[in-house]
Amino acid sequence: MRARLAVNEDQFRKVTYVALAALTLIVFTGAAVRLSDSGLGCPTWPRCYGHIYPPVALHPLIEFGNRAISAFVGVITVVVMVLAFTRRPFRRDLAWLAVSLPLGVVAQAVLGGFTVREKLAPGFVMSHFLLSMVILIFAVWLAWRATYPQGARPRSADRLLVWSVRALSVLCALTLGAGTLATAAGPHSGGLVGQHIKRLTFEGPNTLQWAVHQHATIAAIFGVATIFVWLLKRQRGRELDPLEPLTVLGILVAAQGLVGAVQYELKLPGQMVWVHVVLATITWLVSLWAVATEGRIGNPEPVDPDASIATIVAEWSRSVPAS
After folding, report:
1. How far is 11 from 319, CA to CA, in rounded Å?
2. Which of 42, 96, 252, 267 has the smallest CB count inside 10 Å?
3. What are phi and psi of 267, to 5 degrees?
4. pLDDT tens digits for range 113-156
5. Tell me, what DSSP letter sits at residue 321?
């Protein structure tokens, strides 16, 4: 049986990217559930109104559809986990990372159940989204490591650049966290029209404005830091092609700033907030991509000067015609 499920390096790499795409897709559909006011379309979990299928109505179908997609994503992550153990050659690091994906999906399912039971309490909804971002870390990590043979990625001796890019990912995470805070204080509770859903009110009626300003401030710092790190990499003499992760990250941050400003002026329409969430998720993925691209810190392999001289002499001797 194990021999039948055996996959080679290239096949396993493709499967990890499928899992990454699926785990990203479920974030998009989850945001659509909330922003279409379908968060309590099925007020019970795991069944919908006590049945294994939802009633034929818009909000229950949207909410239950997201649950069905979540189950599909769970199957994909289980497949990746199994194939990690049948991959030839077997790699322990990939197996451990692959195990984390279905565990993350199970954790999401449990947290989703509590979120429904607690009637979309802000803390649960925020945790639901942020847990998805954590799972994406492991998904990106797995796909990236599966792309290269073990030990093939060279270490970087440029500590300042590596740590600067890592600091960008921390700023990106803080921006995401502040964004969930603003959403939890905003008009999109996820519940049906007329349902009473708790919102964040720790600053009274000005909570939304306060949260939006904090989110905008952190996002601005993130954007400026991205420009500085991009310039730092150029100053280091690195090649910067159009698909350089830092370049893509800068474009995404600028686009997010534009979308955020417009949606705020338009009083936060649900469709634009969904676009904001989608771009935020993609920005998070690109920031992780940038961290992976810069690699790990470490000194390059030492060069023996005597061996180098001997090599030069040997090459010179071969180039001199025999007398």
Report:
1. 45
2. 267
3. 65, 40
4. 888 888 888 889 899 999 999 999 999 999 999 998 877 676 77
5. P
